[in-house]
Amino acid sequence: MLQAIGLTSTRHRGRPPAVNDLTFEAGSGCVTALLGPAGSGKTSALRLMLELEPGRGITYFRGRPLHRVAQPAREVGVLLGDVPGHPSRTARGQLRMLCAAAGVSASRADDLLDAVGLAGLGDQRIGTLSLGMDRRLALASALLADPHTLILDEPAEGLSAPEADWLHGMLRDHADRGGTVLYTTEDPKEAARTAGHVVTIDAGRLVADQEGRDFSRTRLRPRVAVRSPHAARLAAIVRREARAARRSVEVVTEASSNHLSVYGSSCAEIGDTAFRHGLPVHQLADEVGDTGPARPARPAGTVRSADPAHPADSVAAPGRPGDRLPRDARGGAAHVGAPCAASAAEKSGAAPEAAADGTKAAVRMPVNAARAPLPPPIRRRSARGPLRPVRYELRRLFGVRTTTLIVAVALVASTALSVLLARNGRTPLPNVLAAWPSLLPLPPAALGAGLLGALSFGDEFRYPALAAGRGAVPRRLGLLLAKLAVSAGVALLLALLVVLASAETLRLVYGGDLVRAPSNAVSLAVSWAGLTVGCAWAGLLAAGIFRVTAAGVAAVLAVPVLIVPFIQVMPKAPTARSMRGLPGRLRELAWLQWPHEADRWVAPAVRVVTHPVGAALTLSLSVLLCAYLFTSLRSRVRW
Questions:
Q1: Is the dihedral of CA 517, 523, 524, 526 positive or negative?
Q2: Which of 405, 477, 426 is nearest to 637 (CA)?
Q3: Listed residue (616, 620, 458, 465) closest to 545, CA to CA
Q4: In angstroms, rounded to a whole number, what is the distance separating the alpha carbons of residues 590 and 611?
Q5: DSSP E strand boundaries for 314-392
Q6: CB 14: neighbour CB atoms within 10 A?
Q7: Contact indicator for 136, 364 with CB cutoff of 8 Å
Q8: pLDDT digit string (tens) for 201-237?
């Protein structure tokens, strides 16, 4: 069960809050529709429930607020807008990446692709999917961790009638298994047809909280349209007389202040009331309609959606002779005001007919493919562990071609620069192997590592893949450590590949006499590894703080361009002492005594830190890490 209590959004620039003291419940085993016109605060209400926006109030998911849930993705599945995935990532790769984040087996991705009808499009890029296929993938992402609650914002917006009926059938299947479903819509007919519980809001406030059958009876019944220059006075009189006669009459003031919709009365009764009180009436007509816009027009070539204007496509609503509502796409009566537990007969039909050209040619597939049953619940749930964020980060990093492209460009540029630097014979061998001419602030390998680190967090903000788990941007210590470890590993691999590729190319071009191992190879290796890893971490932390990839790249370039000159111009005092013997003194302080052979690794590391570039990187990383911890890890989120 979902319980929203006193949801109130923050005021902006003196404007009234988008959501104002909203309280309602969505029960288990039920599909609940949050109905309201555009701008009524539906999306803001969902974001307040998910703690994505600041405000007051609290939402309980089976008795616990979201920040108290250890694994939110297994409690709440979210569909807000399009799939927040990288356009070049495949549908299967996106789901497998989210499987690693949720701690479930990667095989569940294929099961859900079958369930949502994307079994043949698993290798299709997200950027090439049509709207209908994108919504299918978004629903699969929401169902991935087998959550109890589904929260969806306008899931059927822009879809054809068969696609929308298929989606709502999936939601009913989830509710039939005991789950909670809450979705927003602007179409009252859609809410009456697909939901067993309807919560109506307007201007951020609760208007009505009704069961589906009560909603259909009160909102989709005949009405009297009245236009009068004294509409407010006429509405008050009609309400007063209805209360006196103990009659169920509802008067709704429409957008135009002189337009009324009166439910539960007739033209004759309204006309007599206006005549007795001397009120002029400019329009008095019987209408049968709804309280909001209808579904958008279907695209050309698709199967005609059910419409009350076509008697062949509609049936009488139960209990109301003469009032006709659309026929369900599976051939039975429409799901009008049905109870929360759907019957087995209602779920046994086939899926809707296909649209002739409702999808792009690249992803053409019939929408009438039989809907596979939802995968069985995850019975054994793995415990949280350090490998979950590492698996997620590895799949995120290597699931797109950008990583391979950056590594390839860095290798090619480094090899070409090494050949050019070795040609004049005046450049030291370490600079030749690292492809670091004096004109460049950093070698290509360090720039590539910094760019990969910046993209590591920059893509999390641009394509927030973990939005369904907990917030638009993950702020978890476990995720940060995983990103630091993976980016360091990729940076070390890139540094090694650059040195090996440069050495082999130089040996091939100029012969084997040029490349010889220097006497201080250990110190050079530590320096080279520290430079690439430090650049990767600087880009990662800066992108995490400022939420853009460009900030990470700027932080990497600022090390040699700004920080190194600053350190070099600092006033230098005469050297009175040296750090000779530091490894031995560190050994005395340590609890565990390391072997004396380790001293040759400690001393080079100390020399790297005291180098201007090393000192600049150390200072930059210290500041960025403190800033990240201060700005990001103060919240209550977890991995």
A1: positive
A2: 477
A3: 458
A4: 25
A5: 314-316, 324-326
A6: 5
A7: no
A8: 988 999 889 998 888 876 777 788 899 999 999 999 9
